[in-house]
Amino acid sequence: MSHSLPPEKSVLGAPFDACNQLAAAKNANLYRAAMRLSPERQRFFLASYASMRVIDDIVDDGFLELSDAERDAHRENIIQTIDQWQAQIISAKAGAENPLPETGPLNNDVYEALRATLGRSDLSPEPWVELADALHRDVAEEPMDEWDDFIAYCEGATAAPASIFVYLLSARYDPDIGYTSPLTNPPVYHARDMAIFCYIIHILRDLPEDIKGPDRLVTIPAEMLIAADITLGEIRNVIGQGKYDDLDYLGGILLERAWEHFETGQARSGELLSILDTDEADTLSRLFTVYIELGGSMMENGYASFLKDRDTIMQTTAQNNLPDVNKP
């Protein structure tokens, strides 16, 4: 039986409309995919996505963009903000009143949306706790020297949020009981490796934009840069001058790692098919296909060739597989 509805038929209502405004601002592929789910699961997604978007923006845009002196001055305050955010998450899971209605990073709309979804589900708050750990790493500016450092960061930065989406694909909603999932393995088991694959493709896709900012916003481990015999400063110059051929080797190294995770991820996500209905399986397939096709474009003629036609490839790939829900 199909559980999905076209986005225009879904009526979200307060407080989820506020969450939708936060989530739709970037209209990322994950958002587009989630808007294909049933209204009840759209609400859960929007509450979780908005709650994570709030704290991620505080760290990325409100802290990591600051100067060295400003970051040193604000570091303890940001750490406290992350801890307050985590306290709000734990409280929402317990179905309690907002413990920090005036000072917490989650406003009352987002908090109430999370309490009405996460608080009425059998999903653990662990994905949010893992994200908080990754954000603590960001704020502490821990060096990402080796590939293992990158994977450890991915556990919270990408695998944890992806596990929520996997949970929602499998979850069923009952007005009296709330949200329950028949998964026998934790959602992160199915989500982890495909999430890491997608994240590496995401890094390569967005490198021309991310390199414009501070080095600390580029999450490529030093081990990979050394292997490719290139520095972040040289990447910045290469992209600025349009000499994309100089990035082919780095792209190849990262793509090789990405496809290693794809093999495991494909097998583990495939185990979901016996649980998912046709529409949910189609949604998952569409989401993965966006990144598989992007990765394929990077491999087919080399990373440099992808960068030359990046904007067109991105738009075509996303629109073909996950049409913009805000467009007719």
List the helices and strands and how they pair.
Layout: H1 16-24, H2 29-34, H3 39-60, H4 68-93, H5 108-117, H6 126-140, H7 147-170, E1 172-174, E2 178-180, H8 187-210, H9 222-228, H10 232-241, H11 248-270, H12 278-300, H13 303-308, H14 310-321
Antiparallel strand pairs: 1-2
Helix pairs in contact: 1-3, 3-4, 3-5, 3-6, 3-7, 4-5, 4-6, 6-7, 7-8, 8-11, 8-12, 9-11, 12-14
Structure description:
It is a single chain. 40% of the residues are buried. Helix content is 66%, strand content 2%. It contains 14 helices and two strands. It has 328 residues and is mostly helical. Helix 3 (39-60) packs parallel to helix 6 (126-140) and helix 3 (39-60) runs antiparallel to helix 7. A two-stranded antiparallel ribbon has the order 1-2. The chain has helices at 16-24, 29-34, 39-60, 68-93, 108-117, 126-140, 147-170, 187-210, 222-228, 232-241, 248-270, 278-300, 303-308, 310-321, and strands spanning 172-174, 178-180.
Summarize the structure.
By secondary structure, this protein is mainly alpha-helical. It has helices at residues 16-24, 29-34, 39-60, 68-93, 108-117, 126-140, 147-170, 187-210, 222-228, 232-241, 248-270, 278-300, 303-308, 310-321, and strands at residues 172-174, 178-180. Strand 1 (172-174) and strand 2 (178-180) form a beta hairpin.
